[in-house]
Design goal:
This protein is mostly helical and 267 residues long. The protein has one domain. The protein is built from 12 helices and 6 strands. The chain has a 3-stranded antiparallel sheet with strand order 1-3-2. Strands 4-6-5 form a 3-stranded antiparallel sheet. It is globular, with a radius of gyration of 19 Å. The chain starts with a helix and ends in a 5-residue tail after the last helix.
């Protein structure tokens, strides 16, 4: 894929602020890379021999774009592949942090996965399943739930893919490592220009505003209330983390992901 195509996609994301990869039910809003690259063209989600080749091309473009770090990538909006312009991402992180403790209320498995990613980022979803002892069908729902919690609060980001089986796995990293400068800046404050850019995006796309409101409400609800002096010990800044056994990924017998695991959950 030519660098010019990646640059064009970055320009689209920076203009929109937030962009999905594919449209939802071919609706005009929220805007997507597909709708910008092929305006007025209906997208058929198909991967057989008669499928529109542009569907796969956009999928591969998504991988290159996520790996560039010129924009941020997360399964944020309704669990869908979502790109952010960096100023908007900065403002989102600042708004989430201002709502309360972004780690409060997370499942212990989510904190364990975050610990793994703090030690080494990125890791493929297959590696994460194995290292967190969440492999197999019996743990699939739990793994998806804890990853959704991390995506929703933008604690993790996607950054390309890893060829580690019959199908490539999404590479996931801790946001505080892969976008360290943005995270550190967000902790200190958000420039007025970035805040205004986010507000403009939310005004244009109320669906994004509702998604953010849900995340903010969750953080606000889960954040322990500070106790008055002399009335007991203050709440911890983070929930206790589940201890897990570290293993060399080369020693783990990975199970192969299904096509739906690769494609279906990352649309």
């Amino acid at each position: 894929m030519k660098r010019a195509e990646v640059h064009r996609a970055i320009t689209i994301v920076e203009r929109l602020g937030i962009a999905l990869v594919y449209p939802i039910d071919n609706k005009a809003e929220p805007r997507s890379l597909w709708s910008e690259l092929y305006p007025g063209t209906r997208m058929e989600w198909s991967w057989d021999a008669d499928a529109d080749p542009r569907v796969a091309e956009v999928w591969h473009l998504r991988e290159r774009l996520a790996r560039s770090n010129d924009v941020a990538y997360a399964k944020w909006f309704r669990g869908r592949a979502t790109f952010f312009a960096l100023p908007v991402f900065h403002a989102l992180l600042g708004r989430l942090a201002a709502a309360g403790d972004v780690f409060a209320g997370l499942p212990p498995e989510a904190l364990a996965i975050l610990d793994l990613l703090r030690e080494r980022s990125p890791l493929s979803t297959k590696e994460l399943r194995a290292l967190a002892d969440l492999r197999g069908k019996e743990h699939e729902a739990l793994f998806n739930r804890v990853m959704k919690a991390l995506w929703t609060r933008l604690l993790v980001v996607g950054t390309g893919e890893v060829e580690d089986g019959a199908f490539p796995s999404l590479a996931v990293g801790a946001t505080e490592l892969l976008f360290e400068d943005v995270v550190n800046a967000a902790r200190l404050g958000v420039p007025a220009s970035a805040a205004a850019e986010l507000d403009a995006v939310l005004a244009r796309s109320p669906a994004y505003a509702r998604e953010l409101d849900r995340a903010l409400a969750e953080i606000s609800t889960d954040t322990p209330k500070k106790r008055a002096p002399g009335k007991g010990s203050p709440g911890r800044s983070r929930p206790a983390k589940k201890r897990i056994t570290r293993r060399d990924p080369r020693d783990v017998p990975f199970s192969e992901p299904s096509p739906s695991e690769v494609f279906g959950e990352d649309r």
